[in-house]
Design brief:
The protein has helices at about 50-60, 80-90, 105-115, 120-135, 150-165, 180-200, 210-215, and strands at about 5-20, 25-35, 40-45, 65-70, 75, 90-95, 170-175, 200-205, 215-220, 225-230. By secondary structure, it is α/β, with parallel strands linked by helices. Bound molecules: adenosine-5'-triphosphate and magnesium ion.
């Protein structure tokens, strides 16, 4: 079901209980969160409070144990795995703390990779990848391998890869966790620019208050629920 919605992401009373043997780990415990289209949101909270679990579920990488998940107006709760990955491919880009680039591929090949999975032609892939690299200011480094780039540059390549399919939503799990303060600033400014220029909804999980400060809104999690929220830029 597709409905018009001002929200990019709606999570309603979401529970996620991991079961390992006979033990249950309730990672999300009735979490409700709405993210507006075009919003830039940060999520903070202690280790184990459910931040990564929240991103996995909002990104349709994982299903909740119960509760409703609506992405870009699509109620994904009843979708098959194939339909779920279609929603994911079309709407969502991911950025991780550890960049997750493939070392034997060049920057442009890394960025083009998600399009290969989608069956886009070689020429179109390269063109789209070069455009995405331009967006992050790294078109000059297209032929370099990840090991020939700084950490900040590697993360910019990873952001280009996340953006190459024009997703409406960008989900970033501690994207500056491995970077120094200068590169942290560069990455956050870049994400802000993408948010403002392309209208991409951005959700950033972070432990860094300076990163959170640059976002429109900060949501704090505790024990798998929203503990508090602050609007920073209306
Ligand atoms: N695959 C899993 N199996 C079992 N328990 C899990 C699994 N993934 C997460 N958990 C548990 O769920 C809870 C929330 O984990 P999550 O990774 O979402 O926390 P987090 O807020 O991202 O923490 P951090 O800041 O350390 O990254 C933790 O108690 C964790 O141990
Ligand atoms: Mg985490």
């Amino acid at each position: 079901m597709e409905t018009n919605s001002q929200y990019a992401i709606i999570l309603e009373d979401v529970w996620k209980v991991y079961r390992v043997g006979k033990t249950s780990y309730p990672a999300l415990q009735g979490l409700t969160l709405r993210v507006e289209r075009g919003e830039m949101l940060s999520v903070m909270g202690p280790s184990g409070s459910g931040k990564s679990t929240l991103l996995h579920i909002a990104g349709t990488l994982d299903r909740p144990t119960s509760g409703r998940v609506i992405i870009e107006g699509i109620d994904v709760s009843g979708l098959s795995d194939a339909e779920l990955s279609e929603v994911r491919n079309k709407h969502i880009g991911f950025v991780f703390q550890s960049f997750n680039l493939i070392n034997r591929l060049s920057a442009v090949e890394n960025v083009a990779l998600p399009l290969a999975v989608r069956g886009v032609s070689y020429e179109e892939r390269v063109e789209a990848a070069l455009n995405a690299l331009k967006l992050v200011g790294l078109d000059g480094a297209a032929g370099k391998r990840p090991t020939e780039l700084s950490g900040g540059e590697q993360q910019r390549v990873a952001i280009a890869r996340a953006l190459v399919g024009n997703p409406r939503i960008l989900l970033a799990d501690e994207p500056t966790g491995n970077l120094d303060s200068k590169n942290t600033e560069i990455i956050v400014s870049l994400l802000r620019e993408i948010n403002e220029r392309l209208g991409t909804t951005v959700v950033i999980v972070t432990h860094n208050p300076e990163v959170a400060e640059k976002c429109d809104r900060l949501v704090r999690l505790r024990d798998g629920r929203v503990e508090s929220e602050v609007v920073l830029h209306a």
